[in-house]
């Protein structure tokens, strides 16, 4: 179970994953060794799953953000597994979520432009196992794109 000190550590490193242990300890009111031990425990217990850098999609030729609804032709365990495996092999697909409702999966895809998306759709997505239908939603403006969890 997390206490308030653990939550403070998580909030702090969520904002700045490159913070030094000394600075983290100072901000959280801990000694460096106690802070290091808590951080290690939070990693071991799976609260911290990794560290990464946030990159600018426009500067890396991935300015187009698209959400895609995917409807499968059958909803069996094998079809779900085969589709999920195919998705994991496509780096353009940033996120894939199985959802309840009028379709089976919601994908978040980053592409260079609409021509690249059209090629991806024709060459990759519609040929994935079980795909019967897709609906595409191109993002006109990102109003909020947060990665920090409310702790």
TrEMBL record:
Domain HTH asnC-type: 2-63
Cross-referenced Pfam families: AsnC_trans_reg, HTH_24
Molecular-function annotations in GO: sequence-specific DNA binding
Full protein name: Leucine-responsive regulatory protein
GO CC annotation terms, alphabetical: cytosol
InterPro entries: ArsR-like_HTH (IPR011991), AsnC-type_HTH_dom (IPR000485), Dimeric_a/b-barrel (IPR011008), Tscrpt_reg_AsnC-like (IPR019888), Tscrpt_reg_AsnC/Lrp_C (IPR019887), WH-like_DNA-bd_sf (IPR036388), WH_DNA-bd_sf (IPR036390)
GO BP terms, alphabetized: regulation of DNA-templated transcription; response to amino acid
Keywords assigned by UniProt, alphabetized: Activator, DNA-binding, Transcription, Transcription regulation
């Amino acid at each position: 179970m997390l206490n308030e000190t653990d939550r403070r550590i998580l909030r702090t490193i969520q904002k700045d994953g490159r913070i030094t242990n000394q600075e983290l300890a100072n901000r959280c009111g801990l000694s460096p060794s106690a802070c290091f031990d808590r951080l290690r425990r939070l990693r071991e217990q799976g609260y911290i799953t990794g560290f990464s850098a946030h990159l600018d999609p426009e500067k890396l030729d991935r300015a187009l953000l698209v959400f895609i609804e995917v409807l499968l032709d059958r909803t069996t365990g094998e079809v779900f597994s085969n589709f999920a495996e195919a998705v994991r092999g496509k780096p353009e697909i940033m996120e894939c979520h199985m959802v309840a409702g009028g379709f089976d999966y919601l994908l978040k895809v980053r592409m260079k432009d609409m021509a690249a998306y059209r090629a991806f759709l024709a060459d990759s997505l519609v040929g994935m196992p079980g795909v019967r239908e897709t609906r595409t939603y191109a993002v006109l403006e990102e109003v909020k794109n947060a990665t920090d969890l409310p702790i």
